[in-house]
Amino acid sequence: QVQLVESGGGLVQAGGSLRLSCAVSGRAFSTYAMGWLRQAPGKEREFVAAISWSGDKTIYRGSVRGRFTISKDNAKNTVYLQMSSLKPEDTAVYYCAVSRGGLASRPGAYDSWGQGTQVTVSS
Predict the structure, then answer these.
(1) DSSP string covering the chain
(2) Would you say 10 and 18 are in contact if contact means Cβ atoms under 8 Å apart?
(3) Mean of the per-residue pLDDT values for the chain?
(4) How far apart are CA 6 and CA 94, in angstroms?
(5) pLDDT tens-digit readout, 9-57
(6) Is the predicted pLDDT of residue 115 greater than 80, yes or no?
């Protein structure tokens, strides 16, 4: 069974940075693509970024491309989301999840969700 535990969220001013971490247990880390998704209050969950199981391919939501970077550390079984130039509209609960079908930008392609970590960006 896959377990994912996110951390690193918090309150930051607009223009600031945060790094989210997702610790992954089980075989999923070296087998499947991993993604970060987010959900703001009153909105549907949306895709943010994903990385292939090998780490050599990444995809991003258009509004975060150039500001966010997804990466993984195989030795630590951890996926990261480095977020820079944060904007108030980035405020959401951020989740990491597994995509068993490869890189995907559709939230429905993901399962084995973590509990989420809150990111709040003040203006």
Answers:
(1) --EEEEE--EEEETT--EEEEEEEESGGGGTSEEEEEEE-TTS--EEEEEE-TTSS-EEE-TTTBTTEEEEEETTTTEEEEEE-S--GGG-EEEEEEEETTSS---GGG-BS----EEEEEE-
(2) yes
(3) 95
(4) 8
(5) 999 999 999 999 999 997 767 789 999 999 999 999 999 999 999 999 9
(6) yes
